[in-house]
């Protein structure tokens, strides 16, 4: 992996490590989504589920590990920043055997090992460029994580897009395809980490007060309308438009291990020190096991 791209992520985590209080409403929202999914999957006796995967776990400020450890037997923390997940797991007080740390790990491999040469728009590079796009879009997940009940993507997608912009410029002919490949790959990898019938929760920041100062004045009641307006004005992070994510999920739903149902979760606000982000979520349930589907048709 490229040291500069890994360092960028580590630096951001170091800068946000002290923002526990500022993250509180965002954390509560993410926890609500995971706890509601736990209830859906665990049935009437609320039996503990086998495992949860947190992608982009970082400092774990957007989850409460002790609360989650009461719901899942094992929690996998995945991040390119090994130090952040290690520090967060120690600070959580959750028994070590419940937490499995996967870091440094590039969940969009080979993203963090790419260079601008990989996307050079020259005739003799087309074949290589196509190969790289296929790799980004592949479902090659992390080999050492067993199929899990729930996988959550914790605002890691926008960080992956940021790394991509260090490798391929926005005005390059390859940029749009690279963004789409990265997004499809991320969705496929989440689905691939799930057991049949499991649930992926895709949480992503879509725009910040850097380009949309009106977010600072937004409230829980106005944020959905504000985000809708910003999307119409094309003021959002390239690649995070929910309409395009839904299009990709629709395409993936034709595959055997694809989504069965997808629900959009309305945007909410995430305060990160003096910056405000709008965040939205998608709850994606993987198709159930084949035999269950067959029985249902009888
Ligand atoms: C915005 S932070 C999410 C907040 C984090 N859960 C927390 O509470 O601190 C995104 C996280 O994704 C990680 N990340 C970014 N790109 C990654 C990649 N390609 N593979 C693995 N982790 C990545 C960063 O290191 C960071 O910890």
UniProtKB/TrEMBL annotation:
Ranges for region Disordered: 1-24
Residue ranges, compositional bias (Basic and acidic residues): 1-10
Comp. bias intervals (Polar residues): 11-23
Protein name as it appears in the record: S-adenosyl-L-methionine-dependent methyltransferase
Organism: Fuerstiella marisgermanici
